[in-house]
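Researcher: Quick sanity check before group meeting.
Model: Go ahead. Protein one:
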Amino acid sequence: MNLLKETMRILRAHRIAPKKRLGQNFLVDYDLLKRMVSYAELSLEDTVLEVGAGLGFLTEILAEECGHVIAVEVDPRLVNILKRRLSNRRNLSILKGDILKLEVPPFNKVVSTPPYSISSPLLFWLLARKFERAVLTFQKEFAERLVAPVNSRDYCRLTVATYYRSRVKVLDYVPRDRFWPTPEVDSLIIELMPREERPFKVEDESFFFKVVSFLFTQKNKKVRNGLIAFLRGRGVEKAEAVEIADSVPFHEKRVRELTPEDLGLVVNDLARRTRRVGLL
């Protein structure tokens, strides 16, 4: 099937122009869609979530390979097309709305080419839920941040948060011309496998991610300087902030030089010290 011609035919028939603000770039390479599904290792026992179902090409393949598909689409124009095109599929639920705001039934796998515009919030949304495996197509630059090595340009809070909650692997490369309309960047297909156990101990996850997020806003500075600014921003007197920051592990290193495990030690120590003196 020539998905490019079929995409243009369907959109023309319904007088629909893709909306850039919704990130509507349709993957029109059938072989790539089939590979995405094969990476997920589906069976009839699986319930698969698809975010940004679009015109339903991936949805159709998923419905043939798994027990049930939950297809989410925010654009009501495309929802109408999905319902018409896939009306004969009995193992399919189509949900209209924003995935970040919907009540979504339980699922155990995710296979999706979500809009680039929701990549980061969608990732955190997923990592807060239970599932077995996710196969996702993300913008290349975003995907590279998920697997970035320590002390690299792409190493960031997203790298740390993803590593803490899951194992990430790059599976495939998707040239930009496999989409229509053609986006400005290439993409990568990645696999997320949630961890059964965290790779290091964090005493207070909420506090950990607050500190990590702040530190990576100034990742080229020394840890002590980042922590002083963090503490001062929360009302701690300068002298006390300096004393605490100079006492934590790795305080002379640059933020970007710390592994996620190192950051765990830093924040755990910071939490103990501030708690001991009644701060924060």
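Researcher: Fine. The other one?
Model: Protein two, sequence then structure:
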Amino acid sequence: MRSFIIAIQFLTRIPVPTLSDISEAEVGRSLLYYPLVGLVMGLLLAGLNWMLASAPDGLQAALLLAAWVIITGALHLDGLADSADAWLGGLGDRERTLAIMKDPRSGPAAVVVIVLLLLIKFAALQALIENDHWPVLILAPLLARTSLPLLFQTTAYVRPGGLATAIAEHVSQVGGILLPLSVSLGIPVVMGWSTALLIVAVICTFVLLRAMMIKRLGGTTGDTAGALVEVIEAVVLVVAVLL
């Protein structure tokens, strides 16, 4: 339970009890609860969607998107912004890319990417609301956060210490990989086999972005992990609309 609360504290701004004497083992094991945090987020968004059912579709989509950002504290958007600046300004150089990621300032690439991503999410949400496809509100945050255990357990963390060390020492690689695979196989069983195409889209996105991280950095960072979450959420929403 403590590891679950740690995962909520790390990934969201949802109010939870403050914990004391948090151990490195608990921090590492919190990785296994990331999919559950995504499920909680999805249920909150689905509940808000139900409460806003009488609002115009555009306003409903805007409020859902605002709530989505507020729930996460823009944590993953920040990672996407830093990654966008670093990829453009890094000019293919690993050390330069990592240095730019640590710069708290946002450049034009970050602004453009964030605006485009939020615009895409808004348009997709409006289309989904018009067709009453509310289950996608649960799937998008769930699948995005399910990708994190797989990323951290299959990809080197290029900055030493912190979360990466706790995960490496206290979470088995087999468990970290089996968890996302189990979630991916369970979703079509529970929600219908039509969702299998969403799973395929997420897997393709994961493979592509992971390959980009390895080619440029030799692994992943917290910022690129955040970017992965944001991109996968957008992909799930867009593919759901197109299907």
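Researcher: One line on it for the slide.
Model: The CA atoms of residues 94 and 217 lie 5 Å apart.
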